[in-house]
């Protein structure tokens, strides 16, 4: 069981796990949003408690809880060998995966998780070491999106990328000095986008395990982006390219529906 706090994270945890949520604690006299959350939890058969703000402050250990805490089932982790290569939500479409290298900030980690879920990444991969932990701060930064993500924590990111390569997945590291723009690469097959920390970028052993090192087009005076922004832009480019290819295919398909 793990602790989740914040209005939206608690709401998403209830939406994802239903009555498997062990308990919900809301601040007494917290206002209509907290009252609505308490009713929603109660409707799912979850035990709802109310308490003074001081109790929530102590249990959240200083976290920004917005008057809502919950005891939620632990997140399941999957192995890299079992990651889906085709999107179950879109039959026939290859998966896009996201991998993080050295992202230590829980806010960045959570924001990447949110972007990954919103933009259709099939899973998020990160190493056991040199990474932010899955913590209440990460859950809150993801605005609850972590509850809907497929998560894969690996002992070695280079080894994981080599396993994915053997399964037909193309690994693309993002780097401001990349030899090619991301949009110039074919992105229709299974791909994993590898994002590093803003200050250090993708480490050399990880880059060497990738098939491409690509850059995002930038015309401003800032030469780098944080992990969450870079990851979101990369996922958007994959989505844009695939949707464009789908539209082109539909326009050139000679088969027309019967009138």
From TrEMBL:
SUPFAM superfamilies: alpha/beta knot, L30e-like. It comes from the Bacteria. It holds the Pfam family SpoU_sub_bind. This is RNA methyltransferase. Keywords: Methyltransferase, Transferase. InterPro entries: Alpha/beta_knot_MTases (IPR029028), Ribosomal_eL30-like_sf (IPR029064), rRNA_MeTrfase_TrmH (IPR004441), SpoU_MeTrfase (IPR001537), SpoU_subst-bd (IPR013123), tRNA_m1G_MTases_N (IPR029026). GO terms for cellular component: cytosol. Residues 3-78 form the RNA 2-O ribose methyltransferase substrate binding domain. Coiled coil: none annotated. SMART domains: SpoU_sub_bind (SM00967). The keyword NAD does not apply. One of its GO terms (biological process) is methylation. GO terms for molecular function: RNA binding; RNA methyltransferase activity.
């Amino acid at each position: 069981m793990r602790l989740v706090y914040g209005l939206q994270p608690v709401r998403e945890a209830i939406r994802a796990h239903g009555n498997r949520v062990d308990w919900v604690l809301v601040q007494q006299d917290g206002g209509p949003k907290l009252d609505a959350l308490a009713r929603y939890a109660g409707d799912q058969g979850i035990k709802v408690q109310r308490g003074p703000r001081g109790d929530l402050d102590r249990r959240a250990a200083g976290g920004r809880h917005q008057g809502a805490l919950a005891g939620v089932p632990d997140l399941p982790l999957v192995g890299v060998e079992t990651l889906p290569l085709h999107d179950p939500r879109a039959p026939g479409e290859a998966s896009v995966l996201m991998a993080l290298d050295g992202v230590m900030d829980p806010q960045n980690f959570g924001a990447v998780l949110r972007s990954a879920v919103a933009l259709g990444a099939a899973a998020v991969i990160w190493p056991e070491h040199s990474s932010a932990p899955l913590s209440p701060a990460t859950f809150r930064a993801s605005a609850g999106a972590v509850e809907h993500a497929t998560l894969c924590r690996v002992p070695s990111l280079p080894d994981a990328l080599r396993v994915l390569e053997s399964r037909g997945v193309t690994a693309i590291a993002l780097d401001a000095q990349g030899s090619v723009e991301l949009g110039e690469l074919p992105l229709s097959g299974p791909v994993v986008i590898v994002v590093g920390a803003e200050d250090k970028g993708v480490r050399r052993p990880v880059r060497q395990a990738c098939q491409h090192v690509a850059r995002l087009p930038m015309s401003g005076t800032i030469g780098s982006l944080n992990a969450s922004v870079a990851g979101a832009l990369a996922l958007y480019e994959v989505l844009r390219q695939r949707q464009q290819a789908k539209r082109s295919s539909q326009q050139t398909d000679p088969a027309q529906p019967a009138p």
